[in-house]
């Protein structure tokens, strides 16, 4: 290959695909970035076999060709190149010559023949959704996914599509987040339900812009394919049966105490309480007790070796006085993700799950199981 | 104790003394911060027995007293308090009650009796220097100090004062940095030479402002005492004989090749070359070859497993063509610290040390030993 491009092109391309570069040493070629010059486009590609990311940019292609360069070194190097025009050319023996100003460097690379090819998509479902919406949905839902690899289904995020409605769900069995959205583009066929690795979803959020541009989604038998502008991401799907989340969420009619509270106020209190970590407990979390009566929410937490905290927040209470104990981290995660000035906290009693909803709309639901303390 | 202060007071005081809080578990009381209310002042103090930092603020003292609070928890907590007035009060049994808005928390603390008292200064030398100047001197010199604790003298920074001239020196025996400065205040007596831990110096730079305010320095037998406004820092001195640095620096008259070069240009080139790290070498550094002739500086570096680089920079050369090989990190450190648009690189030959000076003045000298490659 032989091309002319700019420093900014290289920095942009590398930064997009970098997250898919493998950190493991098991297959050395996967620590590289594939560069491919073809038809006036330079394509960057990296894969760790879980996900693959592709980014194509318009450049001046003098001669088509490919090479694999070491990912870490190449990304550090391009950041340090001077601004302006860069000339890239393959040398004999799998080197890449980089020329800039009066200078040049040569990077030892590898043949692209060793680089794994991408799986082909046998598209079952094709559709599109606004990038800014999908990005927000991911940020609100992914927080509830589990990091425990021994139960793969819970490390994933469920994508449930029926006609033009999309539902995204994640749960680690202690809390559950659910967000609804609307398909913008056509959807063929009209129904699909897949579990996507949450790590993949976070990468999809990263390549998605804050604009209304469409994110194209294609779901195959074992893979899912996302395209946002000049960037594509392919990921495996997680096999297994996702739990029936509808049954877990109590109906609104069962709610006995509906508390309207300012999100920021409750978050700040929860953050202070969360510092009272019980070191004797392996997973390092603090318990927070919420008690509501007469339009006052009392919050208490206590760790014998550190200290205790007691706070009061003014709220609007519809229904009965009650109390409940949560893991403060689960509450904190929800309050950070909810993106609304006020929320409803709906409680049934000390032994039933609490539900957080936004006051403006019901597109987002976050459910937390209580902790039994007696 | 019982006081009223603001959240900002607490955040400021904690942030100043936090660096002296011990991370080691050997003496649990040292992981605490001492709070002392006395004569309308709240004093924060922390020490790891190497250095101690004190910070005093004007607050409303209702009742004098002291307490030691856990450093890490207290500093995380005060950052999360709401803005505004905070009321602090000792409880029975060494607790600290913190009241704010309608809320309160209690932090379990310790008696201040267990907290080590500060060593008394038997002042031999007292003087003062501008904070902004001293801060800059530290930043330019400390980079050359060694991290190798087996030779304590080289982990220190030499402070040499004769009449109104102060000289600061650090060296790890591979490179040496020297900076001259002027005392602003009176100096009694007129001569002193002490080795201060470089870690202490970096903390002194941190507590020094960017203004012309005086930094008071008092040197005792084993300690040094710095005062910048309401903050004091006490540190031990390093015992031992500092090498005679004057003999190491070649006289300007011996220089055979004087190269004038733009600092930024040479730094950027050196940074690119420094990425060619030789993994086989334990200390992970790259060798960079500088070759000068006809107002061109050629820079080359090569790591067989990664690649190679060749760059050219326009320079002004007075004297003979020559070449030299450096450890790129030592050159990079100097070029980052020098704070001048242009430098002189003075060379005697491939086997003699290279000297970097600023073009505007000669207050700063940075010497690098060459690497023999044959």
Features:
homodimer, 374 residues, alpha+beta, DNA Polymerase III, Chain A, domain 2, Proliferating Cell Nuclear Antigen, 3 domains, nine-stranded antiparallel β-sheet, eight-stranded antiparallel β-sheet, 26 strands, 19% helix, elongated
Please describe the topology of this protein.
2 copies of one chain form a homodimer.
Chain A: E1 2-6, H1 7-17, E2 32-38, E3 41-47, E4 51-58, E5 60-63, E6 65-70, H2 71-79, E7 85-90, E8 95-100, E9 103-108, E10 125-130, H3 131-141, H4 152-155, E11 156-162, E12 165-171, E13 175-182, E14 191-197, H5 198-207, E15 214-219, E16 223-228, E17 231-236, H6 245-248, E18 257-262, H7 263-274, E19 287-293, E20 296-303, E21 307-314, E22 316-319, E23 322-327, H8 328-337, E24 342-347, E25 354-358, E26 364-368
Helix pairs in contact in A: 1-2, 3-5, 7-8
Walk me through the structure.
2 copies of one chain form a homodimer. With 374 residues, chain A is of the alpha+beta class. Chain A folds into 3 domains: 2-114, DNA Polymerase III, Chain A, domain 2 (Roll); 125-246, DNA Polymerase III, Chain A, domain 2 (Roll), CATH 3.10.150.10; 251-368, Box (Proliferating Cell Nuclear Antigen), CATH 3.70.10. Chain A has 8 helices and 26 strands. In chain A, the strands form 4 sheets. A 9-stranded antiparallel sheet of chain A has the order 14-11-12-13-26-25-24-18-22. Chain A has an 8-stranded antiparallel sheet with strand order 6-2-3-4-17-16-15-10. In chain A, strands 5-1-7-8-9 form a 5-stranded antiparallel sheet. The longest helix of chain A has 12 residues, at 263-274. The radius of gyration of chain A is 25 Å and the shape is elongated. The model of chain A has no long low-confidence stretch (mean pLDDT 92). At the A-B interface, α2, β9, α7 and β21 of A face α2, β9, α7 and β21 of B. β21 of chain A pairs antiparallel with β9 of chain B. Chains A, B: Belongs to the beta sliding clamp family. Chains A, B: It is found in: Cytoplasm. Chains A, B: Residues 246-372 form the DNA polymerase III beta sliding clamp C-terminal domain. Chains A, B: Pfam families: DNA_pol3_beta, DNA_pol3_beta_2, DNA_pol3_beta_3.
């Amino acid at each position: 290959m032989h091309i002319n491009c700019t420093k900014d092109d290289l920095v942009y391309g590398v930064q997009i695909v970098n997250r898919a570069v493998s950190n493991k040493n098991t297959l050395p070629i996967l620590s590289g970035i594939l560069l491919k010059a073809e038809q006036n486009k330079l394509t960057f590609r990296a894969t760790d076999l879980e996900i693959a990311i592709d980014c194509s940019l318009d450049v001046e292609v003098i001669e088509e060709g490919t090479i694999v360069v070491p990912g870490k070194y190449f990304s550090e190097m391009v950041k340090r190149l001077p601004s302006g025009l860069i000339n890239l050319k393959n040398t004999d023996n799998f080197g890449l010559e980089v020329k800039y100003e009066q200078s040049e460097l040569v990077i030892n690379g590898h043949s692209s023949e060793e680089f794994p090819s991408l799986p082909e998509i046998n598209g079952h479902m094709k559709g599109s959704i606004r990038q800014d919406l999908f990005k927000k949905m991911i940020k609100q839902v992914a927080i509830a996914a589990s990091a425990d690899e021994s139960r793969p289904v819970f490390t994933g995020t469920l994508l449930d599509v029926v006609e033009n409605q999309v539902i995204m769900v994640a749960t680690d069995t202690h809390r559950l987040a659910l967000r609804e959205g609307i398909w913008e583009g056509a959807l063929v066929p009209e129904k699909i339900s897949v579990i996507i690795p949450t790590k993949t979803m976070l990468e999809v959020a990263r390549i998605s812009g804050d604009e209304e541009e469409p994110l194209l989604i294609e779901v195959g038998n074992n893979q899912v394919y996302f395209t946002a502008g000049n960037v594509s991401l392919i990921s495996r799907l997680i096999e297994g049966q996702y739990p029936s989340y509808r049954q877990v969420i109590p109906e609104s009619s069962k709610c006995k105490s509906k508390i309207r509270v300012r999100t920021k106020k409750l978050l700040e209190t929860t953050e202070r309480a969360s510092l009272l970590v019980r070191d004797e407990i392996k997973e390092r979390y603090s318990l927070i007790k919420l008690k509501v009566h007469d339009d006052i929410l009392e919050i208490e937490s206590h760790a014998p070796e550190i200290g205790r905290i007691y706070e009061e927040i003014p709220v609007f209470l519809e229904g009965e006085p009650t109390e409940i104990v949560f893991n403060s981290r689960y509450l904190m995660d929800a309050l950070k993700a909810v993106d609304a000035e006020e929320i409803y906290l709906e409680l049934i009693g000390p032994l039933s799950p609490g539900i957080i909803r936004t006051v403006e709309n019901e597109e987002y639901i976050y459910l937390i199981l209580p902790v039994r303390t007696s």
